[in-house]
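Lab channel / #folding
Pinned by the channel admin:
"Please post every new chain as: sequence first, then the structure tokens as a reply. Keep commentary short and put observations after the output so the thread stays searchable."

First post following the new format, from NK:
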Amino acid sequence: MATKQRDIDERTFQFAVRSLKMVNAMPKSASGMVVSRQIVRSATGVGANVTEAQGTSTKKEFARKMNIARGEAREALYWLRLIAASGMLPESRLSKLIQEGNELVSILTAIVKRART
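Reply from TO:
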């Protein structure tokens, strides 16, 4: 279990790093700046909540924090899809990040389900 926890820690951390790098390529227009702030908040929130979950003292608290992380991952996916659909960045630049976001949502969903049983 400890290895799996480190894996999700590292994956969510790298998701945040990759998202921050992607934001640096975003247009500096009014809409680009608004969306940039939103994606930064949600993409970095995934790993922050996973890290917080590691320090919880109860299974219920752990599940709650991981569920928040899952919500942040879903929100990040929304912003990534919006960036691609609006043409702020080419979809080819976002496809791997979107794929990782989808995988993180699936992993976090499984973690939450297991923690709630």
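NK: DSSP finds four helices and no strands in the chain.
TO: also worth noting, Residues 59-86 form the longest helix (28 residues).
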